[in-house]
Write the structure tokens for this entry.
Amino acid sequence: MMIQPFESEENVAIVNKILKVLLFVSALNCFQKAEINFPLFLFAIILLGKKQDQIVRIFYLMVITSFTDIVWILLWYKKYELPEFQQVSRTTHFLFYYGLIVSCVLVCLKVVAFIYIAYSSEMVRFYLSFDGIIKAISDIFSDTDEQQTIQKRNR
């Protein structure tokens, strides 16, 4: 039996809306820092419209970028507690805290997105299980029939 990416078209529409909200919030964060989330969510919206079975890869990318966001928040927050930061202009001070708050909101929205995507996608639930993770790793390192055909054609 083939695992369906989503249980209904309504779930696809809701996930698409969630991704658009995340895209908007990450666009707000582009004013303060180099934002990796903006191209990720733009790519995810385009990809999800064409291939819904890619939701697992989108989910994994969101998890990885969430760790990046959390590390950024923790490192930069500690940096701006230093005495040297107390001497910067009010504009710099505002921009830092603006970026910090928007990044925290973005991480919280990603958690909501994780929960909803895992709830609404049978495929994501499978790939979050131990068997699914092993299958995902083995798929990365194995050549599919399609890849082998392309390689033979290119020789």
Summary: The chain has a mean pLDDT of 81. The chain is about 75% helix and 0% strand. Residues 9-154 form one domain. The chain has one domain: 9-154.
